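Page 37, top half.
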Amino acid sequence: MYKIMIVEDEYLVRQGISSLVDYDALGMTIVAEAEDGLEAWEFLSEEPVDILVTDINMPRMDGLRLAQLVKKQFPKTHVVFLTGYDDFDYALSAVKLGLDDYLLKPFSKSDIEQMLQEVKQKLDQENQYQCLQAFINNQEESEFALYIKEHLADSELSLKSMAQAFGYSVSHLSLLLKQEFGQPFQDYVVQERIQWAKLLLWTTDLRIYEIAEQVGFEDMNYFSHRFKQIVGLTPRQFKKGDGK
């Protein structure tokens, strides 16, 4: 779930934003609300969010100053300004300087939904890129790691088959791999298969059972169980973007 914070000194406006939209359907949740920038910053310093929706004109600390602090400390947070016509040019200038978007008051349910869909698309793309980079740059590629990656799709990949390929005893290879990867062979293989599955879930339209087969799982139920165990979401939830 993408985490959202709403910062607005007008109670009715905050209520409108938080109640008009089905956030669960978007894979989002509102984790906090605040009446001004200072209150918001005190919260955000302890618990960053994915999306900050903030008014510009507020007491104690305005939205522009809050956005500057957030972007400096948490550059991945997406900032959306709430602004009236009087502040429109001001908000637009801030957006051009690197802040993300704005929502013009008065706004409707469809305005909020459209804005959130656009921000979600950006977040999804960023997560997709990070997933790809994590898969590619997971570690320096030793001869052992390269062999495992080349054989991930083979459900018959085992410590025994790998020991035969490299000319080691099973016990000796097991020790070498644990020293290199910091975990037992089978745990490392499952982690790599799940990383590959995440990439396929993000970048293809393959069915979940097809992805399970492609990454070397013969049993789709076991694949789903291990995926949730490692990622914290089911493959279906992950594909829908229910998590970062």
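Page 37, bottom half:
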Amino acid sequence: MLRNREMVETKLQRIAEKARKEDECRLTSLFHLMNEEMLRECFQELRKDAASGIDKVTKKEYGEKLGENLNALVGKLHRMAYIPLPVRRVYIPKPGSSKNRPLGIPALEDKLVQAGLTRILSAIYEQDFIEDSYGFRPGRGCHDALRALSKEVEGCRVHYIVDADINGFFDNVDHDWMIRFLGHRIADKRVLRYVNRFLKAGIIEEGKEIASDKGTPQGGIISPVLANIYLHYSLDLWFTRVFQPGCFGQSRMIRYADDFVVCFEHEADAIRFRKELDLRLSKFGLEISPEKTKTIEFGPYAQSKANRRGGKAATFDFLGFTHYCSRSRNGRKFRMKRITSRKKFTAKIRMFRDWLKANRTLPTDELMGKVASKLQGHFAYYGVTDNSKGLSRFSYEVHRLLFKWLNRRGKRGCMNWEKFNLLLKRFPLPQPCIRVNLIIQS
């Protein structure tokens, strides 16, 4: 098993090395990697508790005859006889909103094939993606994007920010452009044909099949890498190779999936970018949300200029945080600080409240363990430099809700604050603290 894994990794590394050395190369022999060893690894990485698609096959059931099933799957794939099933669409509550969010659940074998194709595409395109693309990439995350943004803004050459939002990006990816983009690097027609089949697999909702003439597979393992490839060609390369060389001053775009901000030294460059961005993205079936996209004055002089106008410096939201202009503790140096955005804070509290309401009858030790885990996860992401107030406020609201719903498990007034504090001593909850340092050392 270990030897097979090493063989798969070695082959992927060879492809990655070739893609890195020959940036104009179109790779012709890729689909042979979709073998039993590759798909077996993909199967092992699937979640055990993942919901089943329209095939109703679970990981446990498929694994009972894993060798036989994978052998048959590989045969169908290489005969080009494999046809992806439509995605089963369900709706889940959207945090912070009364609306529901659509969620797609692919069939089990579709998950395996998508995972295999994703590994091949990632091996190629990880060599091509720009440095400031952070979403869904190995060894990179939201905190890396935030740290890069801090370094850029606090370098004191940024005076304007364009905070952009693409309307329904994942639902509006143009399939023809997607295949054309992939064709720049991939000449193996079998890979292109299977990606196209997944794009057009369709959706099953309330027993009715809906054609998918645009967008990436809902809930699909392959969707993140396809999204990065689409934005690499439609946005990243245009900005770095076409727009940026024409700027009068410093400029930098930092992107996490379809969420991105662009920093500028000069207002003229920011205004020109905002105008040309609409034209660029419209070519590929995408549009910017006018309500959620803004150009603001931001940086070391933004607050003093706002003071002269009798107002406050503008803020912007990125990756769940509201960023604002401030100073270092001694007041000598400009700092960009951040706090949990109001929208995300409200959504997280509502999610916790709804979960607690539904699970308040769990045994106390189990309930408190799950609450501790949720707090730990929140602090791990939002526990960044300068966000102490956001963490403390979240912790306070969680404790308040916990007291409220524990008090409803028995007779009214059965839980008072004294008893609650004794409970917390027996089942201590994580304390809010900064876990991630975003300060760039000069």
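Margin note: The radius of gyration is 25 Å.
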